[in-house]
Amino acid sequence: MSQTVPLLIQRFESELGPLPLPPAPPAWVVDEFSAEFYARLIFSCVVDADRLDTAYWPAKPPLDKQLDANRLLSQIQAERAQKTALNPDSPLLALRNLIFDAAIERAAIPSGFFSLTVPTGGGKTIAAMAFALAHAKTHNLRRIIVVIPYLSIIEQNAAEYRRILGEEVVLENHSGVHPKDDLSEEEKSRLELISENWDSPVIITTSVQFLETLFASSPTKCRKLHRIPRSVVIFDEVQTLPAHLLRPTFNVFREMAANYGTSFVFSSATQPAFRKSPALPDGFDAHELREIAPDPDHLFRKLRRVNYHLPKADETLDWPQLAERLAVTRQGLCVVNLTCHAKVLWEQIKRILPLEPPIHLSSAMCPQHRLALIQTMRERLRAGKPCRVISTQLIEAGVDVDFPVVWRALGPLDSIVQVAGRCNREGRLAAGEVHVFRPVDHKLPPGVYRAAADQAVITLAGLGDEEIASNRLAADPQVFRDYFHSLYQVVNTDYAKRCETSIQEDRQQLRFREVSSKAKVISDEGQPVIIACDTQGREFAAPVIEELRQRQLMPGQPRFNCDDLRRLQRFMVNVHSHKFKQLEAMKHIRPLLPNLEIYVLDDGFYHPDLGLVIDNRPLDDFIQ
Q: Tens of pLDDT along 347-396?
């Protein structure tokens, strides 16, 4: 490359004349980090413009949809009024309205960093959007971006926002479809032309999509970056921000807040210790992070709705024992740490109650399937019918359900408290019951999750006897500040392995590919596959697939576009890379369309209750 570029310049100038001098960087580019981010933004603009021009040629690309903050704010306020009218006797109504009004009032504050610390059930989702729209209206911002930790809840929140704000306003983006590294440039371009570029007024996306956009090196992922400046970015359940990326993430956030007109809202029931400290030297000073909620500590005590039952130091439960306890609970939720644990426990309860099998939720299920099951859960709970749910941690944040009893496998402390937010959510009981248990098979996801779970054990052990510990966990937010402070002392907040440079060091040297390879929210993003049907013939994406394959095209009309991809993402499940290769080798996945690297899974691998099951499939998969 070092020899090619001078030859290209020489050839260009010999035919077209001297190259113009490059423009000087803006005044705010004062160090290596601001220069690195500025280069990324320029790259994003150029890539997106090129892809749009190519995709729409010979016509002009459509203009971005404009954010009408005033109209949308009126719709959010109308939604609040309707909820007030429908639930006038709710014991939580006055507090939710207090929080909502405070959000509107605080929106006039100059842009920058905000925290919204509201216990679960306090109406954070609506209050955060009200703040964002009022803030965008005051400061003439152009977009709202809601960043959600789990795929499981993005579809629910997106559906809620679409209902309130309008279908045409909200873009739900969680598809991980992107070109493989070994594709030819021609093949890559087909996917790059239809990849997401966040051209809507309100974006609902995942932490994986958002954070990796900040540090990506590929054109497909980078082309969204220039849409973030002059936006309000809401981080829902901000405690799930990956600890190993905090230092580079905070650095980029500060750059966007200082020089690109971006505001950030950190929303959580258990606000992490993002304040500057010896454990987190890149944290925020007291004046930087401004609180939206009125007196969070008072709200925490006022919104207490559960009692905690914590395990003794040597106490464990095996899955059959736990299944027996759940079987005698008419309405209960149990959250475990691993998908395989959820499957085993579901099978145990189904043996006990074959006529009332529990509901299973995990990331092995496509969004459309999960949405339908969450709706079923709500209907059963409202009607007082039996409703037993076994889930991975994907249900513990943002899913609006109300159980009288909840069980949670020992894990990170914030996860335990988040799932408690699904218990007695509306405060109709004197107190809900939250049981924390240690499985005999106490396996945990590796990395920071395991470190956080270990720190939770230490924190819980230091809270005193069971009654004192339960009271403090339910009503003392200082417990979580101390927990996160201790956690950041034992985890690296800037990815670095032994004898390797950190992300920040790579950013200083403009090593974009190295940064991209290290700044991963999850180590194996996997590859999405489209689910056409389950093993009992229930259709998911089958009608859409048929329509696309039979589509009659007009001259110049593309075979597949961005809107098609957006429709299909509701029926996609991410498969770990090694499992994807296994399915590929067995010829159980096929391209959706010729020469398009988007795949459809063969029928026979999607269980109607468990979702995608490749290995150790239940016997009833084979008995029709």
A: 999 999 999 999 999 989 998 999 899 999 999 999 999 999 999 988 87
Two tokens at 361? 């939720």
Q: For 160-198, how does the pLDDT look when each residue is reduced to its tens digit (9 = 90+)?
A: 888 899 888 988 876 655 555 444 444 444 555 556 678
Cα radius of gyration (the chain) = 25
Angle between helix 319-327 and helix 339-352 axes, rounded to 10 deg: 50
Distance CA 47, CA 38 (A): 14
Q: Average pLDDT per run of 10 along the chain, which is 624 residues long?
A: 75 86 84 94 91 82 89 94 79 85 96 90 88 97 90 72 89 64 46 69 89 88 92 89 90 96 90 79 88 88 88 90 95 94 95 94 90 92 95 80 94 90 86 94 86 92 87 86 87 82 94 92 79 92 93 78 84 89 89 87 92 70 37
Asked if omega into 58 is within 30° of 0 (cis), the reply is: yes
Question: If we measure between CA atoms, which residue out of 65, 383, 114, 415 comes closest to residue 274?
Answer: 114
What does the alpha-carbon distance between residue 512 and residue 507 come to, in Å, rounded to a whole number? Answer: 7
pTM: 0.84
CA 586, chain centre distance (Å) = 32
- Paired residues of 531 in beta bridges: 601
Q: Cα separation of 248 and 282, whole Å?
A: 9
Euclidean distance between CA atoms 374 and 372, whole angstroms: 6
3-state SS assignment for residue 458: helix
C-alpha distance from residue 379 to each of 80, 144, 382, 384, 539 (Å): 22, 31, 5, 9, 22
Complete domains list, the chain, with CATH: 69-302 (3.40.50.300), 306-490 (3.40.50.300), 527-621 (no CATH)
Which residues, 6+ apart, have CB-to-CB distance to 372 below 8 Å?
none
Asked if 307 and 475 touch (Cβ cutoff 8 Å), the reply is: no
